[in-house]
Amino acid sequence: MARVTVEDCIDKVSNRFELVLLASHRARQISSGAMISVDRDNDKNPVVALREIADEQLSPGDLKEDLIHSLQKHVEVDEAEDVMETPITAEGETADKPEDAPALVTFDNMSEEDLLSSLQNLVAPEKTDDF
Questions:
Q1: What is the DSSP letter of 88?
Q2: What is the pTM of this model?
Q3: Could you read off the pLDDT tens digit of each residue along the chain, which spans 131 residues?
Q4: Which of 6, 40, 78, 96 sits most deeply, having the most CB atoms within 10 A of its CB?
């Protein structure tokens, strides 16, 4: 197909599998109407995508990020937590916490014996004919 173009791209993207993923993603972008940065010369979209990667018109890192973003179904947004920790003074002592500051999260500690006895006291659900 485009052996010379693939060999030119290996210098930019060392992994052939990753090169195929990036070039196919770029070819899909071109098919959907994205502007190309090299002359088409009667080439098909995958060859144009490989030529763009070989000529360093597109950064492989940017293409990879765009590919990952296009495949994500759920994007997590990092939100700042409203937990205010107790400040420590220069002497190593904790300073008094303001009245309106939110309380820190605390966890109950349970011994292994308490945990085992709680688990043993659990009642198994009754069997039904549905399953």
A1: B
A2: 0.53
A3: 456 678 888 888 888 899 999 999 999 999 999 898 888 888 899 999 998 998 888 888 888 898 888 888 876 777 766 655 555 555 555 555 566 666 666 666 778 888 888 888 887 777 777 65
A4: 6
For helices 60-71 and 16-31, the axis angle rounded to 10 degrees is: 70
Whether 6 contacts 15, CB under 8 Å: no
Tell me the sheet residues that pair with 94: 88
Beta strands in 36-81 (DSSP E): none
Residue 86 token pair: 């107790």
Q: How far apart are the first and last CA of the chain?
A: 55
Rg of the chain taking only CA atoms, in angstroms: 29
Tell me the HSE value of 95 on the side-chain side, using a 13 A CA sphere: 12
Q: CB–CB of 30/45 below 8 Å?
A: yes
**Tokens representing 13?**
């993207």
